[in-house]
Amino acid sequence: MSKRYELPVASTFTPREIVSELDRYIIGQNKAKRAVAIALRNRWRRQQVPEDLRDEIAPKNIIMIGPTGVGKTEIARRLARLAQAPFVKVEASKFTEVGYVGRDVDSIVRDLIETSVALVRREEEDRVKTKARDLAENRVLKVLAQSENGGVTPGPTGTFEMSDTTQQNLTIEELRPRLRKGEFDDRYIEMEVQDTNFPMVEVFSAAGLEDVNFKDLFQNMPGFKGKKKKRKVKVTDAIELYTNTEAEKLIDMDGVQQEGRRRAEQTGLVFIDEIDKIVGRSRSDRGPDVSREGVQRDLLPLIEGTTVNTKYGPVKTDHILFIAAGAFHVSKPADMVPELQGRFPIRVELESLGADEFVRILTEPYNALIKQYTFLLKTEGITLEFDDGAVRAIAEIAANVNQTMENIGARRLHTILERLLDEISFTAPERSGDTIRIEAEEVRESLADVLESEDLSRYIL
């Protein structure tokens, strides 16, 4: 596989184009969108500068501050998808200081490189998919040809051999159109596959508690290498299994790993959620978990730039973009250790969502909630319609509940809609062909009994 040092095409989008794409899925939060758009564009800019200066340009990490349910995670996830970049989302509260039982922060980079290698591998599989499928079809057709001609004993490779090669090739070509038409889809054939049934356990290492796949340890040892088992599968499943096998032969895994490591280093994106959970109310208050400030100190070299050893080789973190997020209800960013504050020079405050934003969330995005429920019930033959008043009523109720109880942002809309459509969803199979129109009055009546009792609404919503 040839080396590729250019960024994916999506990374050449202008900041305005990036924001426009994010607008399709996320309502509001323009400051945060602008910040991540500039950060993504800076990656493209960095590739254009002279090589001797390129390594000196570090990414400007971002910290997003705002209550839950306002779009912090969604912005990072959509950005990674748009950039076609290796992306991992981690929760800061799951990590512990080195010396405590739990995951250490270096596992973030190990997860990132795994994601990156898998991303490159999928790209290579797509590139060789057509050729691999043709080879897989040939292997299946050999078995079917023997079956159609009376069958013979399978050879050591799991395929059937015929003495008359000319007749075999002719038979295969005759069967190929029938195979592609689906005539053999329900037929079973016996095939040999690689035995990958190795245990997954957790072990202690110098880096902390890690998941170790014994397949990686034993697959090349005598007695394990090349170990196969026989399976009887449908023809369609056999083609898929053989396609994967043939693709592995066509792919240069050393090149994939090298490219995956380079992408992780140059275009990797790490989203650290709940970073406020490792911050005390003040620097003198360490809270109930004495390792919280230790986790912050462990994150420092990772974000500043260090080298982490992985099974694919050493990975430098100097140019990985880190985006952190937290609600900071009981603490504030200034309570973080000063060194960590300096690692996130760009701070963006996300705004709380009100009724106007909820109306837009319900109707405008590509994956709008109203659209989701409409298509879900359409599968039962029901036409679901919401008038403008009903949408406004749902938004206002969600905003009111967020004000009187815990503010969970746009996630409140999910609970409101589930409650509103509970009866319709339950009886939908018996109402196929109906057209149901939801109006404002019906929304208020459906939720009135819940909203009248604060205690009850706390329990249900």
Description of the molecule:
Helix 5 (106-148) crosses helix 6 (165-181) and helix 14 (388-404) crosses helix 15. It is flat, with a radius of gyration of 28 Å. The strands form five sheets. It has a five-stranded parallel sheet with strand order 2-7-10-1-11, sandwiched between helices. Strands 3-6 form a two-stranded antiparallel ribbon. Mean pLDDT is 79; it is low at 1-5, 152-170, 204-209 and 285-289. By secondary structure, the protein is an alpha/beta fold. It has 18 helices and 13 strands. Helices cover 50% and strands 14% of the residues.
Key descriptive features of the protein:
disordered N terminus, flat, 5-stranded parallel sheet, 461 residues, alpha/beta, 18 helices, two-stranded antiparallel sheet
Distance between the termini: 54 Å
Summed over residues and divided by their number, the pLDDT gives a mean of 79
Number of helices: 18
Tally the beta strands: 13
Strand order of the largest sheet: 2-7-10-1-11
Major sheet attributes: 5 strands, parallel
Give the % helix. Answer: 40-55%
Quick recap of the structure?
The protein is 50% helix and 14% strand. It contains 18 helices and 13 strands. Helix 5 packs across helix 8 (235-250).
Chain-wise SSE layout:
Blueprint (H helix, E strand, L loop, with lengths): L14 H9 L6 H19 L2 H4 L7 E4 L6 H12 L3 E5 L14 H43 L16 H17 L6 E7 L5 E6 L2 E6 H5 L9 E7 H16 L2 H15 L1 E5 L18 H13 L2 E4 L2 E4 L4 E6 L11 H6 L2 E4 L5 H9 L5 H10 L4 E4 L1 H17 L6 H10 L1 H6 L7 E4 L1 H13 L1 H7 L1
Helix pairs in contact: 1-2, 2-4, 5-6, 5-8, 5-9, 12-14, 14-15, 14-17
